[in-house]
Amino acid sequence: MQLGLAGKVAMITGGSKGIGLQTALQLSQEGVRVAICARDAAGLEKAKRYLFNETGQEVFTVVADMTNKADCARFVAETVTHFGQLDILINNAGTAAAKAFDDVSEELWEQDVALKVFAAIYTMRMALPHMKTRGGAIVNVTAIAGKTPGANSLPTSMSRAAGQALVNAASKDLGKYNIRVNTVCIGLIRSAQIEQIWKQSHPSLTWDEFSAKMGEDIPLGRIGKTEEAANVITFLVSDAASYVSGTAVNIDGGKAPSL
Q: How far is residue 145's CA from residue 163's CA, in Å, rounded to a whole number?
């Protein structure tokens, strides 16, 4: 399958680790020129070295906090200045925040919505002028909790639901510019946070044993791999998905009861 990604420019928020880093790797391997941002300068530098060692491709990095509107604008502007164009936007920055309704502070509500909703709105708006004349692809990373929220899932489930509505509505408005907008809804995927739980709570288990234990209620029976999420994102921003827009793809091993 020809993905048609070579020569394109992508920017990825939260690109220094996890799904963001793995997606940066896969896009770089496809010939995409990639810009990543994160708040941690040291983590960004480590990611930059890793990506160069793996692909031989230089990655442009910007230290930025996506809860800050000015930083959102600066990341877009510096990426376009550096590469001269913008074709792909991946809004991946996010954190896990899951509590009962009466345990969520006002500060946490505001922080979560700022990071998971407004950051995506700001980067999409600021990327739009650069994509209007050439088309483009946007993928916002959300979570299956946005489709099927459960107890003790706030504020994440609410902000992710808003993010999924944003994608569906924006795809209707931006299609006339040949800009496709989709979301991937993440389930249980291997991350630094999951690995910490593994080492603290089940140090005697191998990763595969721990993955199977955590995946007992997942039809595929295990925790997902970061590259499995990155594979779907890479497909969605590629020419191979040129007629896919306004959709929400579950990456959860079949756990979610909704499509």
A: 11
How many domains does the structure of the chain reveal?
2
Query: What is the extent of the structural domain holding 218?
Result: 192-223
What is the per-residue pLDDT across 57-109, written as a single tens digit (0 to 9) for each? Answer: 999 999 999 999 999 999 999 999 999 999 999 999 998 889 999 999 999 99
Quote the CA–CA distance of 51 and 4 in Å, as a whole number: 21
Sheet holding 136-143, edge to edge: 60-63, 33-38, 9-13, 88-91, 136-143, 179-186, 248-251
CB 34 within 8 A of CB 10: yes
**CB–CB of 83/60 below 8 Å?**
yes
Over residues 188-200, mean pLDDT: 92
Three-state DSSP state, 57: coil
Radius of gyration of the chain (CA): 18
**Mean pLDDT on 211-233:** 98
- The mean pLDDT of 199-221, rounded to a whole number, is 97
43 and 62 co-located in one domain: yes
Q: How far apart are CA 35 and CA 32, in angstroms?
A: 10
> Do residues 182 and 124 lie in contact, with contact meaning Cβ atoms separated by under 8 Å?
no
Same domain, 215 and 240: no
Q: Which of 186, 183, 254 is nearest to 220 (CA)?
A: 254
Mean pLDDT of the chain: 97
User: 221: alpha, beta or left, given left = phi > 0 and alpha = psi -120 to 50?
Assistant: left
Identify the pLDDT of residue 1: 80
Residue 227 burial (CB count, 10 A): 15
